[in-house]
Each structure stands twice: as structure tokens, then as C-alpha cells.
Protein: Thioredoxin domain-containing protein
Organism: Polaribacter butkevichii
Amino acid sequence: MKKILAFIFLISSFAQAQYTVNGTMYPTLKSDWVILYKIEGATQKFVQNSKIAIDTVTIQGKKQAIGKFSFTLPTNTKPGSYRVTYKLEEAGFVDFIFNKEDVSFSFNPNYGNQTVFFTASKENILYKSYLDKSSAAQQTLDSIQVVGLQNKSLNLNKEYKKALKQVNDIQKEYLETSNGMYVQPFIKASLKNNSSDILKTPEEYMSSMNNTFFNNIDFDNKTLLNSSFLISRITDYVFYINYSEDQETQQKLYKKSVDTVLSKIENITYKKDVIEFLVTQFESSMNLDLIDYLFETYYNKLPANIQDKNFKKAKQALFAAEVGRIAPDFSWKENGKELKLSKLDDAENYLLIFWSTTCSHCLNEVPQVHKFLKDNKKVKVVAFSLEKEAFGWNSFKKTLPNWHHVLGLNKWENKIARTYNIVSTPSYFILDANKKIIAKPEHLKDVKDFFTEK
């Protein structure tokens, strides 16, 4: 009997030592899986995955399908910021705080964090309540400020002071309520430094926002470092707060905001993660100037053991053949002579074509390019043919006289083709006399339009 009781006690203790994270989504998704990550720095680390179970509930008299999932966390699970991801092809996630308690929430998977509602977890319920109340109060204050900027004849000082007091009261209330809780650093860091008086000009307003944006954020706080909070604020500051419709001004603002952000980060590992994050963000808009700036000014100056050589190599390779870059160099033999792309000086512009005799589109387009440019003395074509063997190429190139012909064996695995990130043929690159890539036409029509306009 004693052994049985001890066994029951052991099982009971084990069960109580575990924590559960329960999620309910409505409507359901085609996907049947969810993944749980722990956010550490600017990265997320896999914890476990789970299946989405479909259930049926009655909503307003109609039966509706909902998705349910659950994660079981052991007693030694570290407190921190966690993320449930439920979409592969596009962003779809819900973030939450775990601090040694069960967590339950529901949400609309089409809007994720915007619709999450917590039903279990004191930490998350309190923080979500704070975000909702403070956001509503701040919007009221901001709307008064905007009206004041739009109509300077209005005296809105009284309304502004009242709204400001409401914001400050909410902040004070939740700071006191969250004392000793895991979420308090988030509440402290999200406090906005509003002006004590309504501001008179848009310039004054933007200056105040820029100068005080990070005032309450402690970039050394481990709780903030291991969450999505800092990355979210950095994103807002770099890509939304510092905005201009003028391209030249925008580039300057990007660099200035990047400088501001990185000057505040002392943690070398986190700084490295943030730089990599920013590089990836600028990659989506192909902003090579900012990517180069981040590498040259910051990443390359990090300790060698901190830098991710694979990341650096991959990004350098990815952008090696983009507009604005000097075309990656290569050499070949032509009529017994060794030629090099960088040394060519027989034209004002060069059209570099990656093609193949086994490509039907190429056999149609390349002769058309030859016919179109045959009388253009200012343009020289470098035809780089991707082949498995030389026989067909040796024959076909004779129909394209006065071009520079380069044989690239191993086809898709050819080293030069990989450097240029060639994934289809024909692929066109237009170079200036210095071999700088000035255009990457997608189609033959684009090639013709470029040289016709010139």
C-alpha cells in the first residue's frame, strides 16, 4: 500500500510540475501544425511543435469549426518571451510571456497578435490589459496633438492636459500593479515621453519623438533583450519614425537612425544580431547602400569570433551581381588570347548574356539580340553560354559573329553562373564602360527599350 501511495504521489507531483500552453483559433486554417519558439536576442529558437485539432462549437446558433492546440512545458522551462507560429508562407504568430504558470489564449489566425485574448496567465492578462488601455489613451492624446498642429488657432491646452493625465495615470497604475512581475520591464520600456504641453509645429513634434524615443528603454535589460520588444521598437524607429519621400534624404535618415540604434547597444552579441536583422530588412528593398554601410561601419568591426562568416559570405554573394555593383570578374580564351571582363575596352556599354544552346527561349531570343545590336558600335555583347559540353556551342556561336563568346561548362553548377545567381536563361546584365551593372533587363523587350532610349 505504501508503495502504491508513493507512486500516486510521485505521478501527482510530476503532473503539477508541468505547465501547459493552450491556444484556440477561429476561424481555422488549412495547416494542421503549430511551432513553439523561445525568443532569444534577435533570433528565435525551436522548442517544440504540436498538431491543431479541429473542434466544433455553436456561435450565435450556428456550428463553427475552431482549431485547438496545446504544448506541455517541463518544470525547468525558462521564463521568457515565446512565440507560437502557425503559417509557413507568410507571417502568422502570437507572442506571449511564460513565467512558471499555465497560459491560455484565443485569437484570429488572420491577425495574430492584434486579436489575441488571454484567459489564463496573470502576466499576459495584465500586460495585454496595459497595452489596450495605454494605447487607447495615447491615441486620444495624439489625436488632440494632430488637431492642434492642423489648426493652430484652436486652444486645446485644457484637453491636452486632461488626456496627458489619463496616459500618465494608466502608466503609474500598471507600473505599481506589475511590481515584482516578469512583465514590468516591458511596461517601463513602453512608457512614452509625451511633451508636458501641446507642441506648436510638426517639426517640433517629430524632433521631440526622435529625441525621446528610446529614453525609457534599457538595452542592457536581459528580459527585454530576450524578447521581440526591442526589435519591434528598432523597426519602428528606423523604418517608420524616420521617413522622407525624398530618396536622398531617406538614405541619410536611415544611416542616422541606424547610428542612433547601434550606439545604444553595448551587448556585442545582441548588436551583431541587430545588424544582421537590419541587413535582412534592407535586403527586402535591395538597399545595397545601407547594407554596405552596415557591414563596413559596424559588422566588420565586431570581434572576429562574434561575426557569422557564413551570414556575411551569403549576403555578399547574394548582392554581388545587383545593379550598382561592379560585375564579378571572369576570364576566358578568345582567338588564342586571354581576355578578362574587367579589362575590356572596346565599347561604351556591354550586354552580358547568360544563355545556353539547350534553352529553347535562348535559341529564339539570342539571334534577335544579335540582329538588333549588329550595327550598334557602342555596345559589345559578352555571351556566356552554360553548357554540359562544347560541341553544340562551338557550332552555334559561329552564327553570332563579333561577340565575345565564353563557354561555361557544368551548366548550372558553373562557378561564374553561381556568382551571378543565375537561375534561368537567358539572363541579361547591362554594364557601363567600367563594368558597373547599370540594369538587369528581364525580357528581350527590356533590352531593346534600354538601348533604343539611349
In short: The domain at 331-453 is CATH 3.40.30.10 (Glutaredoxin). The CA atoms of residues 74 and 188 lie 30 Å apart. The longest strand covers residues 62-73.
